[in-house]
Specification:
Layout: H1 6-13, H2 17-31, H3 36-51
Helix pairs in contact: 1-2
Length: 53
């Protein structure tokens, strides 16, 4: 979310920072990724693909 810190993202989503970390970890595991930056790259590429459809 635009380079925001986890605490700010959690506040925006009205969840605790620990819940955000847990959700992020589960999403990374399901996508077979190890780092949040990899998840971000995937999201950006998917967004570009949807825009070009």
């Amino acid at each position: 979310m635009d380079g925001r810190h986890s605490e700010e993202i959690a506040r925006t989503l009205s969840i605790s920072p620990n819940a955000l970390k847990s959700h992020t970890r589960h999403l990374l595991e399901k996508a077979g990724q190890r780092r949040r930056v990899d998840q971000l790259r995937l999201a950006v590429s998917l967004r570009r693909a949807v825009k070009h459809c």
